[in-house]
Amino acid sequence: MIAGITGKVQSKGTDWINILTSGGVSYLVSTTAQTSTQHQVGGVANLLTHLVVREDQLSLYGFSNQDELRFFQKLISISGVGPRMALSILNAGPVQQLQKAIAGGDLAILTTISGVGKKTAERILVELKNQIDVSLDGDSSSDSEDLLAALTQLGYNAYEVRRIAMEIPADLSTEDRIKYALQLLSK
Question: How far is 99 from 86, CA to CA, in rounded Å?
Answer without folding.
Answer: 13
